[in-house]
Structures are given as structure tokens and as C-alpha cells.
Amino acid sequence: MLYRDTFTISWLLGRFCNYKCSYCWPYARSDKKDHRPTELCIKTIDSIKEQAREQGFNSFNWFLSGGEPTFHPGYLDILQHLADDEGNCNRQRIHMTSNCSRKIKWFETYIKYANKFDKASITASAHFEALNTQDKIADFADKLVFLQDNGIRITINMVMIP
Predict the structure, then answer these.
(1) What is the Cα–Cα distance from 143 to 100, expressed in whole angstroms?
(2) Does residue 1 sit within a domain?
(3) CA 85, CA 137: separation in Å to the nearest integer?
(4) What is the pTM of this model?
């Protein structure tokens, strides 16, 4: 249920993706790391919140995607900045769409910040062109179980050629 003071932000953090799926359209991904500087992202967050609050909004839904958003070099800093403002918000939720290809250590840090939000969720895109061995599939599944066990809501998006 959405509340009257909810402001929703859908943010594509960059088009860089570490996968090269045959079915991905050209604009959706890039080999080039095209991320905006972290400090600019943080200033943008502050500006968004300031303008939203001036209009009576103080609950925020953040939807972060890419390319592959976890490869933004400042992703965890951005998440920490959002989490640090949690006490000033009526409610704040974080959602990410990711191929979850980062190592488990990255996700261990992610959950420290994500669990500060009222709700944290991930749409985990299972790309079977990249998850092409039983070990890779097991690693993907293990990460999702780890995230669920630590309070992150998971949806699996099965991505494939029709």
C-alpha cells in the first residue's frame, strides 16, 4: 500500500554490465563503465529529498538498477548515505534489480546497510547464458538464500531467449 507522502525514485545508475547476454538490447548495457561520480549521486539524493520534502513527501521508495548496479564503484556508499537518513524519513524502502554476480563478501556489506530500511528487496535476474554450470547456479542460489536469511526479500526473474 502506498502512503500519501511517498515519493518514488527509479534510478538507472549506469549501463555497464559484466554480462554480455545475446538477448540484451544495445542501449540496456555497455562494456564501458559509465557511472556518475559517487559524490554527484549523493548530492543528487540530497536534492531529490529536499525538493520532495518541500512538497510534503517524506517517505521514499528507491529503485536502483542498471546495467548491473552493483558495479557502480560507490554503490555501497550511496546505500549507506540513504540508510544514514532513515531516522529523518517517515518510511524508506530500497529495491535493486541485479544479476547478483558479485561475491558473497559484497552482499555481506550490502545487508548491513539494507537492513536499516523499512523494507529491502532485490529482483535477482537469473541469466542462464552466464549461469551455465551447476556450480554457478548453486552459487547464485546460495547468495539468494543468504540474502533471504538476512531479511532481504527476493524475487527471481528468469531471463532467457523466448
Answers:
(1) 8
(2) no
(3) 36
(4) 0.93
